Amino acid sequence: QVQLVESGGGLVQAGGSLRLSCAASGRTFSNYAMAWFRQGPGKEREFVAGISRSGGSTIYTGSVKGRFAISRDNAKNTVYLQMNNLKPEDTAVYYCAAGLMIFATSRLQDFGSWGQGTQVTVSS
Question: What are the tens digits of pLDDT across the range 34-47?
Fold first, then answer.
């Protein structure tokens, strides 16, 4: 499995921006489709954004379309999540996930490797 370490979380006011990073190691990063999930207080883990292993295809959950952008740099073994116009309902622990497949997917069960998570808190 690939090892994943997230960074970039923090406290931000509503309307602000954050950029999350996820550094991968241990396997060939470009063989993995990547995704970001999040889990808010008292909620189940939910899909946020996904990217194909080449970076040519991305998918988003509806509530973040137009505000969040997922990208990857296969030379740096890193995937990013740029989050703009943050809202209090975006408050959650954000997890990076890797799945050994070509295309982007939103299915939690497709991902076999997970990071430890990074906290994002948006104040109103």
Answer: 999 999 999 999 99
